[in-house]
Amino acid sequence: MNFSLPPGITPTKRIIIIAIVVGVIAGFGSLLFYEGLKWGIAFFMGYILQYVYPQEGQSVATISLWSAPHALFLLIPILIFGSVMTGILVTRFAPEAEGHGTDAAIKSFHGDGRIRKRVPVLKAVTAILTISTGGSAGREGPAAQISAGFGSVVADMLGLSPKERRIALTTGIGAGIGTIFKAPLGGAVLAAEVLYTRDFESDAIIPAFMASVIGYAIFGFFEGYAPIFSLTPLTWTLWQIPLFIVLGILCAAFGLLYIFVFYGSRDWFAKVFKRYNLPLYLKPVSGAVLLGIMVTALALISPEAETLGLSALGSGYGFDQLMLYSLLPLAVILLLPFVKILATSLTLGSGGSGGVFGPGLTIGASVGAALGIIMHLFFPAYVPLETIPVFIVVGMISLFGAVANAPIAVMIMVVEMVGSISILIPAMAAVAVSNLLTGEKTIFRDQVPTKAQSGAHRGEFDHETLEGIFVRDAMTPRDSVITLFPSDEPGKIIDLMAQTGHTGFPVVENGRLVGIVTNRDVSSFRVADKTYPSIREAMTSPPVVIHPDDTLEEALAIMVGHNFDHMPVVRPERPYMLAGFLTRSDILRTYVQADYLTACQKQKSP
């Protein structure tokens, strides 16, 4: 059914309508998803497993009554049931519902801006099955993909333009996440920040604000407006800032480990199932069985080890709350980051459905708790007991803000989730350090560096301007291009990327252009189960090239069509001799300069 907006409505009014409709859908969609999760957890964890599940937001008196399952032997069958159903639904109806959801929504934004109508419902069902049966996953990814999917449906119904379609999709991401976490401001900022590693989608911020507020109002009307977590009074001093900087360093290290293990696990499961030609619907089952074995084995060791194993199940918010109340032993906290990283990688890396935000908060919280408790034990006057919750909250922000390349949004979200603005200063210190150290490493692989690399902004370039600029005017000349040799070791390109910030280099042998090697090639030979002795085995050969006298319109069309960011430039009469190197950033910079000069000339003309 199509309810196209009348052509006479102004752009501002169209954006308002989009925000209102997406906000209402996000509010009710998140509410239904959240209620489904609650009922699923109550049934599988409570009724079948007889597990008094710790919940976020509970009082000290209530949460201290949590207890381990009385029927732990049923955990593996429960995990198998949830993963089998998820595997069947995902492989049969919507492969894009696999994994953590937010990445799929980001990919849609940079692509055609469309999400199939069946995806929101299937994502909700599969995420409920995964999380409520014990899979280690969060609810932010599903909420993002569900609301973004409904945003895409709204775009179809209202007959929106491609740009408005992407605004609706992005607004859905922010509204969904902001609503389900009762963090409307942080969710709105996340919508604009999470799409890029070095840029910001400014067009989405205002409609995301409106939609998040509407969604939050609807969700809170039924679920209450209290923050997600309950806190005891927080105290910290300026003299503790160096410790929060140390926490930022630790969070960067664990964040990089999280990314490495997560994607290593995903690639390993994919490789094994492809090698042995196993049914793909059983892939989530393999991860679930390994998770169940790990938790069951830990439960046989000791009560503390059992607590550690149980912390690996579900989103982890209940154990975050236990840490905030200082109700977990130090031995559990020290090992919890490693166990949660492994559990999440087994669940989502094998094809389960859920988000990475919740587990990321638990990993960061346990890193902060461990540092705070150790400092308190050795220096109780310097780090009193009341300061430990500050370390926990700052750890949440620092770790996930870094791995998501969204420090501002995550900082605001967590502040809203704990209901305390007093931790902003130590959080800023820690998250700045963790972001600097992680660089552009990201848990969301479909993020792109800037708008120049996004297919969403391809249509914003004026074609006439691009057709009037030649490649020779934008390219980096041969003398200034850093080149590699086929015999160079793969480690050399990694070092060059770290030193220069460039993500691609032409490969030259005996003065002749023979290939190109980029960050994508680096990723492939880092995760593949083989070692390349030289760049020759990893490079793309022959490379796609462009000529100096071609226009930037032609160059950009080739780059977008092939989905890459770099092209060697050669002269037609000497096709094997490198004349220069062109990147999307070069095109954007030259375009902006030309557009600015054109505007200045128009102002001067009478």
How many DSSP E strands?
5
Strand content: 5-15%
Radius of gyration (CA) equals 25 Å
Q: Which structural class do the helices and strands define? A: mainly alpha
> Helical percent range?
55-70%
Q: Summarize the biggest pleated sheet.
A: 3 strands, antiparallel
Enumerate how many helices there are, as a single number: 24
Terminus-to-terminus distance: 50 Å
Shape: globular
| Helix/strand order | HHHHHHHHHHHHHHHHHHHHEHEEHHEEH
Low-confidence stretches: none
Strand order, sheet with most strands:
1-5-4
**Mean of all residue-level pLDDT scores:** 88
Structural commentary:
- The chain is mainly alpha-helical and 606 residues long.
- 60% of the residues lie in helices and 5% in strands.
- Strands 1-5-4 form a 3-stranded antiparallel beta sheet. A two-stranded antiparallel ribbon has the order 2-3.
- A hairpin with a 2-residue loop joins strand 4 (566-571) and strand 5.
- The chain is globular, with a radius of gyration of 25 Å.
Summarize the structure.
This protein has 24 helices and 5 strands. The chain is mainly α and 606 residues long. The chain starts with 10 loop residues before the first helix and ends with a helix.
Keywords:
mainly alpha; three-stranded antiparallel beta sheet; 606 residues; single chain; two-stranded antiparallel sheet; 5 strands
